Amino acid sequence: MPPAKAMNVLVYAGTGTTADSVRHVLLSLRRLLSPHFAVSTVTADVIIKEPWMSTCALLVIPGGADVPYTRALNGEGNRRISRYVRTGGSYLGFCAGGYYGSKQVEFEVDNLKLAVIGSRELAFFPGTCRGGAFKGFEYSSENGARASKIHVKKTDTEEAYTFRSYYNGGGVFVDAAKLETRGVEILATYEDPLNVDGGDGNAAVVYCKYGDGAAILTGPHPEFAGQHLHKANAGPEYGPVVDAILADEEPRNLFLRSLLTKLNLKIPETTDAPPRLSAIHLSSHNPPDIAHLIDRLSIVTLDSKIQDSNDTFLLSSSTQPLPDVVYDDTDDLNTVPKPLIYHTASYPSCPHFSHDLFFNSLSSYRQYPGQFGTFLLYGDTVTSTNVLLDKNPDLQGHLPNGTVFAATTQIAGRGRGNNVWISPKGCMIFSLLLRHSLDLNNTAPVVCLQYLVALAIVEGIKSYCPSGKYRSMPVRLKWPNDIYAFSPVENSYVKIGGILVNSSFQRNAFNLVIGAGINTHNEAPTTSLNAIRPAGTEELLQERLLARVLVVFEEFYGAFTKAGWGAFRDRYEKEWLHQGQQVSLEMEGNAKGTVMGITDEGFLKVKMAEGGRAVELMSDGNSFDFFRGLVKTKR
Q1: Are 131 and 99 in contact (CB under 8 A)?
Q2: CB 278 within 8 A of CB 368
Q3: Is the pTM of this model over 0.85?
Q4: Helix 542-563 × helix 355-365 angle, to 10°
Q5: 435: three-class secondary structure by DSSP
Q6: Buried-most residue among 98, 120, 231, 260 (CB within 10 A)?
Q7: How many CB atoms lie within 10 A of CB 521?
Q8: Apex CA 499: angle with CA 494 and CA 505, to 5°?
Q9: In this structure, are residues 207 and 139 in contact, taking their beta carbons and an 8 Å threshold?
Q10: How far apart are CA 510 and CA 507, in angstroms?
Q11: pLDDT digits (tens, 9 = 90+) for 284-309
Q12: Element containing residue 299 per DSSP (H, E)
């Protein structure tokens, strides 16, 4: 099964894929898997270089052309994919991705212009994928498209049935019925007569056991929903194809769900369309201060619009009608204009976030005037609070220090190594804008701020109530930037949150966007703070907890700038999972050592077992596999 509690579904969108195939995969999988999984695209560089495997629940290779896949991924890319599946991961290959996952490919062998013959490295299906199963295929064309009749095999939970699936150039898995002893199971067969010899089985879709994981390979395209096909893309003969696929939407959807379930993905009971982006509200603890901020923003505003580097913001007062936004099913949500509504007279009224509770809590927790959280951006559904602050310098440059961007749902959140992390309802999501002067860096190294905010989150949770009722919450730190909690169900510590710091340098200061997401209410996919709070205590409210964390962090930050990391080291090491842990260092040939702590400069200090030599490791270049006791070079 997929790695424990993995939340990412990664769709390859690099060399060889077609934009339309990637689009259909994203639309179908996001509708079925939200909010339990984050469905996003990756390139060959990410597969080859980034640490994606431990957080990936499913790797999808969509339609296109498999020969360019080999050029991009042969060697290290395929070794990583193979290792990922063999150690419990899941692979789903549609059409070209099905060819690519087979041991041998035979495609249009009698057509000199199209012929492809050769072996493939992954070899999840230990035989030949032969195609096209039907005549007429042309690259970048719907001329060979058809509504192919697919017969789905009977299972322990479902009777056999037939539906018509979009097909364009896919193969048949030759003699799949003879390979059952090698872990192959036929899930569906072609009913229409084939143009090639399919051997025993006429297999259209196969399940292939591979080590501790599995792959499902398809010839047709069950991920293509009729509603996203356009009759105008081809001649009059294409219209009936679209109509047939539309008519069989229910069984198509049932089959796609069954494939995901077969690969051990938990599908939410309701599969509504993914949430659409909402307006962003700009407010302040003292609402009239917003008028002065809007005056500052006027420098970069033209016709009530901020056309920034990554996003476009449509400014309007809360007393004006909401701007009209054209929103299609594009995957590039950065191109969708974001309404930015400013409130100069009162707090916004939002269904999932109480501004009154947040600002009142900020006042009650503060012992002296502060900056962090005084100005607040909030969106019910946004792309990424970090990206919206970090990638838009015109907006960022005119916001006050300590401005916070909070959200209820994040649909394109980012973690370390370009990992996408899911932020459904029930997560406390925020990003803080912090300008850290270079003059402070000798005393207070900027690298230590990720540790400081992590400590502030843990302390904020445990000091949520002045009476100390939450002090026993089993919440700990994992180096360098994760929040873990003990789950009685799992009988182990599980991840409930993470931190990401983006940094740029301007005018003698580090401009930091410190982002965090903490699971407060949603028990999927791991556990939540409210699921583990002490018996008899009140529910932790996100608005109040956010205020508490910000007040604690501002207090910590003030002390940090004066006394440095040494003032917090003992406190941090009391809360983390690693003190005295025996580890293997991958960069030292898996030599053994003991974790000693964090240095004043922010390095992880490990004492080697042989010779007692001290090794210092930087967080940006390494990651900590806590449960295996392995410090790995980040790839």
Answers
A1: yes
A2: no
A3: no
A4: 40
A5: strand
A6: 98
A7: 17
A8: 165
A9: no
A10: 8
A11: 999 999 999 999 999 998 989 999 99
A12: none
